[in-house]
Amino acid sequence: MALAFTQPGSAHAKDCATLDDCLQELLQTAKEPKLPGAPMRQETHTLAERIASFPGAAEALVPLLADPDPDIAERAGLALSAMPSIPPEYFDAIRAGLERGLGWLPAALGRIDSEKAAREAVDRYLASRSAPHNQEAAAVVRSGVRAIPRILERAACSTPCPPETHWLLGTVLEQIQPGRERAAEGLMGIAEDPDAPPQTRRGVLGMIGALGRDGLALEPRLLALKAQAPELGAWMDGALVEIGSRRSGEILARRLRQEPSAWILRDIAETGEAARGAGPAVAEFLAGDPLLRAPAALTLGYIGYEPAVPALVAALDDPVDPRATWAAAKALGRLRADAALGVLSEAATAHWYPPTREAARSAVRQIRGEEAEENDERGSGFAMRFFGYEHLDEGIPECEAPAERRHRESRATKLYAHRSPERMKRLAYPSQIVSYGADDEEAQRAAGETVIRVHSGNLREHREIVEQTPGVALRVGGGWLAGSDRGEWGGELMFLPDAGAPQHILDANIEDIYQLGDAIVVTTGLAHLSMNQGVLYRATRDAQGAWQAEIWRILPGAPAASHLVKPDELLVRTRHTGTVVVDAEGRMRMARCRKAAATR
């Protein structure tokens, strides 16, 4: 075959009109200069998709899987994986290509209409090191209902299963739509089998949860099994919630009261109206734990709990957490609370925090029928939408130069590591760093693994004592309040007495410590990956001289920098959620700016 050489970066897919021409272009891309390990260019992917659209493409591509040039074979695998269907007679050749280790080829198994190919896809998926987000997973999902018999066989664990087996199977089963409901009967049979290993029964209950609403027909049998096998109760509850059982509200309310967390509130919210029975338990948190007020408000809207409207109206004036005021406005709009129109209209113009004003305006439009309700779709993206209260950056300009004048603190009473490194070294204290890894890490490395797998079966906690030099210290009676920030590795607030042992006060990433009016206020928080959390603590001392720290105010986001603007006013620039000023009474406002960047 004669090849026409083209310049790198040419629009291959636009230039070829026939299968032969496009194949020549694809082969040419294998010869273009590239850096070792560099990914294929987007033009190559586009060309592969173009080839996959031609009749007879499989017949032309499959022989290339055995080409001595691995770059050519990889490109053939890429094009095959893009095909809408592949005749079953090519299964053996494709499996031979997989044995060769062609990275783009596994997904092609899902395009072969045969049970043999689907079985191969499931087995390779469970054996892969990069599951569940890889080409093997795509092969299983593309196989659809053809994969279900093998999924059930592997879920039964006739031989002992690795700890992650059922989680991996549930991850792909959840994505098989339509048709995942065909797994329900088989999974329930395994769960009901008293002779099945407990680990298998627990794992299968998790897979039933992955069926979502398609598993709701199993509710009566799950409830009966819960009475017969109380040792499976927690896993049974999880499955009932995931399928949308009428018992969801009761189960989730109990779980929330036992172990309050934003993640459980997220689960309640995602369950939707099936969890409406949890409404009273959720509403209790509107005036409870300051860290849970915002997620509680959002959750009440998602589950449609109208009795919470008066409490949500009151939350519009929450003095502790501006995110909770935003969340209350969002919930009132979702509930279409006519009774809240007046207070929402006032908040839309008068609230100090811009995102709350915008949320109130949107809620008013929703209640009046002038604006459609926000996307309520549940699924893999729901957590990001739910925790959006940590990223209220829409419409807030970055305050590059605050107009508030800095109030200077005395260097005799306030130390920073970058200004007084030697003095801070004398305040060093022992700190414990906790991390996690695999207890078989050495064995994995000896086996040639470059990426160490950590799962529930090999998880090990590591504790290391280090000498920590604080980043900031404030002089108080008899010693120093000192704080450290190690980023994702944590931090702490300590009292370091002039004589005696250090006192640990708080585990948190400490940004700074201030004398604010008559109080001592500590700025804390962390912005890491999808997390953006900031808290102001008040540190107090009891009659015996012991220090405590309690949440005083919630910041819109993690503190990036802060300073006093008056003895009783503190300016905090948060990570992308605004620059705020807090006075000694706890009142908040937006900082005045001389120079503001464009809104995000």
Automatic annotation (TrEMBL):
InterPro entries per record: ARM-like (IPR011989), ARM-type_fold (IPR016024), PBS_lyase_HEAT (IPR004155)
Coiled-coil intervals, chain numbering: none
Annotated Gene3D superfamilies: Leucine-rich Repeat Variant (1.25.10.10)
Pfam families cross-referenced by the UniProt entry: HEAT_2
Protein name: HEAT repeat domain-containing protein
